[in-house]
């Protein structure tokens, strides 16, 4: 399998299904994968007016887009090329497309990238779809013809009058399409477990820190309005206060359910299940997803659940400098704070990867790093029963359970809660 150090997007076709528009793309990033990318109809129509597909050329979609401030218009381009020549084809695009494009560009983890709400995996390539479509049409008309001849023969044999419309319904054969669920990938994480991580009470909390843009060419996030803090939402669910700078577990008698990589399209359903059983939980949010689903952050927080940061782009913190780690922490926390109107102190590093710089930043800003001791690996197995069986086989008093905001985990949640309650374990939020 080929390995690609950078993301490349080959544009295969622009499709419309019902009232929605999709780009059929081939993404080259660690592996080659075909996706359908749902975009706004306006951008799709603008692209179709500029791009004429030709089997003799390859069309590469740029990962860059720019704003013409005079026209207040975003623009991107496609490179049309073959062995002899290349040409850039520019097209206007919406701000929504611009933000989606930059999210794809900045995402460092394929597992997270293919879970973006506007992307879905497609098995078939556009060339196969075209050839299959022609083949299906040919088979369809041959079938119609054969049935017609047989019908005429039978009717003639019985000496009955036929009506032409009864022989030909005029319906074209349907185009077959196969779409599979995303198969996720996760990079092994390197974890450092310090012997003693005590919080420094002499350090002061962060105040009025700006939001530096760590990644170049990244769009500004529209949450910069300064607002007075509100009173924190009081949780009606059991809560455990964390005292250490780094925590892998909690006191005996309790267990913590935690969700990573949100918010997502499943966030509200997860919260509703938790509310139904009257149990606590903690959510760790990725900044990119906070921008897309701010209402789901508010929904979890306003219903009394703890929310924390899971970094801006799911970067490996070990690979970031001290300054870039701090910029990431501050920016993500400020995004969440501008929704909840409260300081965010909980942090979970992507992959559980941390180094001494990360620990020092936790102490400097009085943050609390929340790791785990029970990993369901729901990102890997994507099977509801496997997730349930893991919890039943491995969970014990004082555990912090790691889940992700996925459909299998959502489906497993009621049985997980019922099992933990049957063991007389208090299911808590973290603070």
UniProtKB/TrEMBL annotation:
PROSITE patterns: NODB
Sequence intervals crossing the membrane: 138-157
Signal sequence interval, chain numbering: none
Gene3D superfamilies: Glycoside hydrolase/deacetylase
Domain NodB homology, first and last residues per copy: 253-428
Taxonomic superkingdom: Bacteria
Record bears the keyword Transmembrane helix: yes
Entry annotated with the keyword tRNA processing: no
Pfam families: Polysacc_deac_1
InterPro entries from the UniProt entry: Glyco_hydro/deAcase_b/a-brl (IPR011330), NODB_dom (IPR002509), Polysacc_deacetylase_ArnD (IPR050248)
SUPFAM superfamilies named in the record: Glycoside hydrolase/deacetylase (SSF88713)
Residue spans of biased composition, Polar residues class: 205-215
Region of interest (Disordered), residue spans: 183-215
Keywords from the UniProt entry: Membrane, Transmembrane, Transmembrane helix
PANTHER family from the UniProt entry: GLYCOSYL TRANSFERASE-RELATED
Protein name, per record: NodB homology domain-containing protein
């Amino acid at each position: 399998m080929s390995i690609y150090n950078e993301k490349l997007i080959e544009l295969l076709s622009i499709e419309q299904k019902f009232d929605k528009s999709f780009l059929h793309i081939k993404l080259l990033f660690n592996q080659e994968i075909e996706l359908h990318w749902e975009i706004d109809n306006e951008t799709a129509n603008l692209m179709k007016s500029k791009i004429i597909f030709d089997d003799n050329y390859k069309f590469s979609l740029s990962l860059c887009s720019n704003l013409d401030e005079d026209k207040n218009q975003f623009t991107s381009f496609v490179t049309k090329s073959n062995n002899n020549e290349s040409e850039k084809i520019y097209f206007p695009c919406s701000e929504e497309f611009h933000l989606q494009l930059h999210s794809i560009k900045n995402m460092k983890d394929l597992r997270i990238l293919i879970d973006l709400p506007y992307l879905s995996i497609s098995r078939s390539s556009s060339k196969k779809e075209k050839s299959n479509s022609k083949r299906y049409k040919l088979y369809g008309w041959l079938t119609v013809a054969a049935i017609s001849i047989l019908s005429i023969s039978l009717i003639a044999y019985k000496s009955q009058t036929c009506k032409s419309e009864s022989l030909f319904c005029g319906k074209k054969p349907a185009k077959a399409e196969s779409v599979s669920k995303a198969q996720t990938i996760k990079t092994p994480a390197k974890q450092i477990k310090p012997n003693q991580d005590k919080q420094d009470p002499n350090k002061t909390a962060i105040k009025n820190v700006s939001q530096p843009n760590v990644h170049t060419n990244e769009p500004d996030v529209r949450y910069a309005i300064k607002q007075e803090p509100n009173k924190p939402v009081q949780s009606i669910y059991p809560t455990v206060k964390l005292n250490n700078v780094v925590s892998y577990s909690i006191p005996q008698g309790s267990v913590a359910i935690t969700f990573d990589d949100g918010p997502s399209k499943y966030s509200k359903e997860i919260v509703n299940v938790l509310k139904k059983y009257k149990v606590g939980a903690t959510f760790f949010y990725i900044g990119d997803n906070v921008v897309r689903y701010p209402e789901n952050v508010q929904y979890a927080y306003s219903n009394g659940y703890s929310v924390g940061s899971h970094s801006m782009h799911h970067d490996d913190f070990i690979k970031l400098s001290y300054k870039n780690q701090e910029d990431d922490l501050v920016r993500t926390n400020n995004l969440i704070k501008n929704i909840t109107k409260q300081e965010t102190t909980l942090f979970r590093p992507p992959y559980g990867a941390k180094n001494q710089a990360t620990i020092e930043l936790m102490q400097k800003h009085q943050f609390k790093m929340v790791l785990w001791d029970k990993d369901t690996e729901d990102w890997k197995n994507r099977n509801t029963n496997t997730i349930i069986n893991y919890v039943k086989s491995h969970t014990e008093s004082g555990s912090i359970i790691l889940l992700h905001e996925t459909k299998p985990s959502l489906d497993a949640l009621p049985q997980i809660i019922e099992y933990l309650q049957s063991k007389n374990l208090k299911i808590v939020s973290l603070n």
